[in-house]
Write a structure and sequence with these properties.
The complex is a heterodimer of chains A (about 400) and B (about 575).
Chain A lengths: L3 H15 L4 H13 L2 E7 L5 H4 E2 L27 E2 L5 E2 L7 H5 L3 E8 L7 H10 L11 H7 L10 E4 L14 E3 L14 H11 L5 H19 L16 H14 L6 E6 L14 H20 L6 E6 L20 E7 L7 E2 L20 E2 H11 L5 H4 L14
Parallel strand pairs in A: 1-8, 1-9, 5-11, 5-12, 6-7, 6-8
Antiparallel strand pairs in A: 2-4, 3-4, 5-10, 9-10
Chain B lengths: L2 H12 L5 H7 L35 H11 L7 H8 L1 H8 L8 H7 L9 H7 L5 H8 L5 H7 L7 H17 L3 H13 L9 H13 L7 H10 L1 H6 L27 H10 L9 H10 L3 E4 L6 E4 L9 E3 L2 E3 L6 H11 L2 H15 L6 H14 L3 H9 L17 H11 L3 E2 L1 H13 L17 H4 L2 H15 L6 E2 L2 H4 L8 H12 L6 H10 L20 H9 L8
Antiparallel strand pairs in B: 1-2, 3-4, 5-6
Classes of the chains: A alpha/beta (about 400), B mainly alpha (about 575).
Chain lengths: ~400, ~575
Amino acid sequence: MITRRTFVKAGGCALVAYAGAPRFLLRAAHAAEASGKVLVAIFQRGAVDGLSMVTPYGDSGYTGVRPSIGLQPPRRGESERAADLDGFFAFHPSLAPLVPLWANRSLAVVHACGSPDTTRSHFDAQDYMESGTPGVKSTPDGWLARAVGARPAKSTPFRAVAIGPALPRTLQGDVGAISMQSLDRFDVRGGSDGTVRAGFESLYEQGVHDLLHGTGRETFDAVKMLRSARASRIPPANGAEYPRVPLGEALRQIAQLIKANVGLEVAFADMQGWDTHVGQGAERGQLALRFRDFGAALAAFSQDLGDRMSDVVVLTMSEFGRTVAENGNRGTDHGHATAMLVLGGGVRGGRVYGRWPGLDRHQLFEGRDLAVTTDFRNLFSEIATRHLGVPAAPIFPGFKPTQQLGILA
Amino acid sequence: MNATMKLLVGAALGLGLLGGCTSAKSGDSHVAAPVAQGAPAVPAAVPARPIATATAPSISGERQIIHALSRLTYGARPGDVERVRAMGVSAWIDRQLRPRTIDDSATDQALVELTTLRMPISEALREFPRPDPKLRAKIANGEMSRQEMQALYPMDKRPARIATELQAAKVVRAVTSERQLEELMVDFWFNHFNVFAGKGDVRWYVSAYEREAIRPFAMGKFPDLVRATAYHPAMLFYLDNWLSARPDFVVPAGPNRGRKGGLNENYARELMELHTLGVDGGYTQKDVTEVARAFTGWTIERPQTDGHFIFRPGMHDGGEKIVLGQRIPAGGGRDDGERVIQILTRHPATARFVATKLVRRFVSDTPPPALVSRVAGTYTSTGGDISAMLRTIFESPEFFSEDAYRAKIKKPFEFVASAVRALGGTTDATGGMALARASAEIGEPLYQAQPPTGYADRGAVWVNAGALLARMNFALGLASGRYPHVSVALPALVAGADPSSPSAVLDRLLASIVADQPGPETRAVLTAQLSEPQITRLSPDDRGPANTDVAKLAALVIGSPEFQRR
C-alpha cells in the first residue's frame, strides 16, 4: 500500500529531478507549490466505443467483425486514416489534434480498462464508476469527492468544481463541491444595488444546516471569490481555440479557474452522445464528429494551459465499451471494456498501458465484448495517490490495487 | 388482513381520507385499493385527526391542506388553501384523481394557438420539412448568408417548432390547468418512458408521443402505458427498435435495398431496466437478447412521410423465445411483443419498481419500504391501476407524516411553475416559452433529457451552487415582471396590507407564498431587509400603493430555502 509518507518521499525525488530541468519547468515547479495539483475528470456518457477511439488495427480479430464501421489501418501520410500510435494501436482520424500530445509523451492510453462489475446498464455502470465502488449502490458519496476530502483542508470554495447543470455523482459528498453552467453567470444578477444579493445571502446563512442552506452558504462564498478573481475575463492563451461545444466551453472555463488560482483541486466535465447503437460511422460519420469535438477540446485545453499542464492531469472515462462486432444497424450495442486517456505534464505518455486481451472469439468477454484487464480502480487509484497524494484505501474501499501501471512519473 | 395492515387502515381512516367512499358514489370505474377493501364504511366527513404512530407522527389540519396542495399540484395559488378547506381535503384529492370531472376549458383555450399540439405525425412531417442539405452546404462555402437562409427557411417552418410549442404547452398547463394531478402524472410518465426530443425523427414525433401514448393513460392502467409507448414511433425511433431485425435480414426494397440488418438490443434492455422490472429485477443478458428478438419487426412505416407503427413479418425473428423462464413458442409474429409486455407488466418486480418511483415522487426521496410494499400490492391486485396506487399513497399515514412534510425539493420545472402560481401569475404560450427557458437555466430543459433514464427525482441532484443562483435570478426576474407575456399579481397579493407598513406587507407575502410558518430565521432575515432603504422605498412621489418594494421582497421569498421545498 502506498502511504502518504512514501508519496512525500517520491515528491521530494521529483523536486531533485527538477534541478537539472529547463527554466520553464522550474517555474512550473514553483507554481505547483503555490497552486497545487489539479485533476480534471471527463466522463464520456453513453459508453464510448474504445475500439474506434484507440483502434487495435494490429489485432487480426478486428478485421471482419465490423464490415461497415471498422477503421482502415493507418497508412503513412494519409491523414484521412487512423493515426498510428505504436504499430498495433491507432487513434481515430478525428483525434488528430491529440497526436502531437502523444508524440511529446504527455498523453497515454489505458486500453481494455473497465469495471469488474458486468452490468450493461448505463445508469448502474456510471453510478459504479462515479462512486468508485462497482457493485455497491449504497455508497453515499463519489470517489472524486472522497479524494478531495482526504487532502488537507483548504479555505477555498473552489476545491472541487463540476461544469454542468447538476452536481455529478462522483462529486457528491461532504467536500462542498460546486457545479456551475457558466462562470460569468455565476452571480445574483439584476438589482443594481447589492441588497438583493445580500438578502439572499443572509437567507441561506441563517437556519438549520441542511442541503439547501449548506449549498447556499458555499455558493455565496464562491460568488464573492469569483468576482474578485475575475476568472471569467481570462482569455485562452497560446492561441488555443476551443471548439464551440459544451465540452469545449467546460474545459475553457476549467482552465480559467486554474489560471485564476482559486484553489481548484478537482474539476469535472462530461460529454454526451456516445451511445452509438445505429449508424456509428467509421472514419467519418456520427462517432467521428463526436471524436472531433472531444479531441479538439482536450488539445485546446492543453495548449491553453501551456506550462501549467505540469500540475494538471486530465483523465477520461466511460461507463463501459461496446460490442466488438457491429450490430444489425451499423452500430454497436453495450459491451464491457473500453479505452481511457490520461493527459498531463507528469504523465509517462506515448504508451498504451494495460494487457491487451485480444479480439479472437474465445478471448472475448461472454463471447462478444472486449474483456477488462485493467480494473478502472487501478488507474483511478494510481492517479489519486500519485497525483493528488491521497491514500487509495479510503477512496476505493474494499479494493487492493493489483498492478502498478506506472503511468505517472 | 394482518394486524399491521389493520393498523394502517385505521390510520388512513383516522385521517378521514378514505376517498374510496366518495368515488364509489360517483360511480367511476376506479378499483378501490385493497387496503380500503374490507375496511368498515366510514362517512367521509370524519374530521381529520392526527394519528400517533411510533414511526411517523402525522400532520393535521391546515398543514394537511398545504401538504396535499404542494404534492398534488404545481404549487398553491392564492386562495387555493381556502378552496381546499371549503371542499375538504379528501374530497379535493378524490376530485383530482378523477380529472375528467374537472372543467378545464380555460386551459384548452390558452393552448389553441399552439397548432402543432394537435397535428398528426404525417401532417407535422409535411408542414415542417427537414432542411435541405444543399442549403447547409451553401452556407458553409459562403454562397448564402445566414439572413438569406432565415428568409428561405424561417424558424417557424422548422421542425424545432414542434418541441418549442410542446414546452410552452407544458408550462401553460402546469400554471393554468385545474387538472393538476393529471398534469403531474403526464410529466411523471413522460419522464419514466423518456424520449429525447432532439434525437433524429423524434423531433416530429414527440408531441404526438405525449398526446397519444402518455396523456390518455396517465391516470389509467400501467400496462396500457407500456403498450402505447412500445408501439409509438417516438419510442421505436428513440431506442432504435424500428431498425432491429432478425440476424440474417437483408433489406428487400427501398433506398437501403440489399443492406444487411440485425438485432438491436437498445429498447429491449431499457424496457426491462427502466420501464418495467428495474435494474435489479432479475433479468439476464440472455433475457435482453430474447426480448429484442421478440420485438423484431416492430418498426415505423415510412418514417419521413407517414411515421406510424407497422409490423414487418420479414424483419421478425420467428423462432422460439424464452423470457424470464417463460416460453414464447415459435411463429407468434407480432404477438411476441405483446406477450413480452404481458410477462413484464405482470411481474412482481415491475409492481415494486413502479411503486417505488411513485412513492419517491409523492412522499420522500427515501421511499418508506412498508408503503412501497402496499402500493406494489395495489398494483398487483388492480392490474397496475395508477389511480388506485395513488389513492393508496394519499391515504397512507406515510403521506401525511411529519417526515414527509416539506421533505421534497422541487425540481427546476416544479420550482418555476410553482413560483408563477404562488404570485398569482398567468402566462400565455409566448410566456410559456420564456418560462421553459428559465427551467432549462436552472437545470431542467423540457423534453431534452438525452438518456433514457429521464431526469432524477431526488433533491440532491438538483441542489447545487449554479442551480441555486439560477433559482434566485429567476425569482428576481419573475417578481420584477421581466418575463414577457408572464404577468404576476403582486398588488393583489398584498391587497389590504398597509403599504407604508413594510412588516404588514411582508406578513401578507409570507402567508400567501409559503403558506405555513416560515422558519423563524427566514422571517428575521426578511424583517431585517425591511430596514434597507432600497427595499422600503421612501419614494418622494409616493405614487401607487407600495412604498415597500414588493417585487424585491417577493423575489427574496421565492428564492428562499423554504420555497425550494414542497
